Amino acid sequence: MKKSFFVIVFVLIFLLSGCGIKAKKVKDPFISIKEQLDKLESYTATAIVELYNNKIGNKFSVVQFYKKGKFRLEVLEESGSPDKIIVYDGKRSYVYFAKVNQVFVAENTEEIPLYSLITSFIKNYINSGGEIEKREMDKFYLITVPILDKNIFMYKEQMAFSKEDLTPKELTIFDINNEIFSKITYKDYKYNPEINDKLFTKDSVTTLAGNLLDSPVIEIDAKEVYKYCGINPVMPVYLPQGFKLLNVLVNVNENNGVTFVYTLGKNLMEIFETVVDQNEIVNEKGFLLSEGVYYKEKDNGEKEYTTMVNGIQIKITVTGDLSEEEILKVIKSLR
């Protein structure tokens, strides 16, 4: 009887001690958040920015792309139309202002909403020097840090991380009086995705990323035209003063044409070359401008000149102030 009693006690002790060994300690979620931020190399997100300062008082969205120190911000108005596109290639920032169709090298960054970047918060978090507040809400973990380059409008900021997946959801920026200066909500956040490097180049700054990545048009060297299109292109011997060849484009879905793009400031001249049936040019001719040259104005105000050279149909589309006389000189110089 005694022997059976000791056996039962021994088994109970063994089971209890075993349960103790299996019990796992719950990891601090703030440590997990910090680890995720430390390992962030790239991200994409759409930031909805609300500014509460009386002098500004507006709302806009910023489509964000970040990759290893480089970033791209597409600032959209409430209507969804682009206001400006900012590209930082690791050395310089280029800003495209859609309303004036001009690209500038950014010297003054006051108009660039860098504060909306998640990496801006990370920088302040890492270099906060211990001045960090952490607390837990129903749906979020909150981390508040001082802003390194603080001013009276942007004094400290608080990031809300989702309890479900620890992703950043909302950034609130406070002024020196602890009033809300800005609230930024992040949507469609992707952690460490693959991002095409061409989004961080100066040449991409005038085009929205969605159009740039989805477009079947690719840039090639002029020497590769025959390889892609089977065309020996004609080139203008004469160009209006200041115009330079910007790029050569082909559509990989329609490999029978090539476009040469020439620019001077806001003036644009695109020369599209393709092989077509002779009757097609007659059907699209518009009105006869000069011998063998037809002209029409498109609904968007662009001017289009069409002709045939060495069996190749040439369409020259002009945006800007280039005169008819200059275009005719270009056409006559095609060789």
TrEMBL record:
SUPFAM superfamilies recorded: Prokaryotic lipoproteins and lipoprotein localization factors
Gene3D superfamilies this protein is in? Lipoprotein localisation LolA/LolB/LppX
Q: How far does the signal peptide extend, from start to end residue? A: none
Keyword terms, alphabetized: Lipoprotein
- PANTHER family associated with the record: SPORULATION PROTEIN YDCC
Can you say what this protein is called?
Outer membrane lipoprotein-sorting protein-like protein
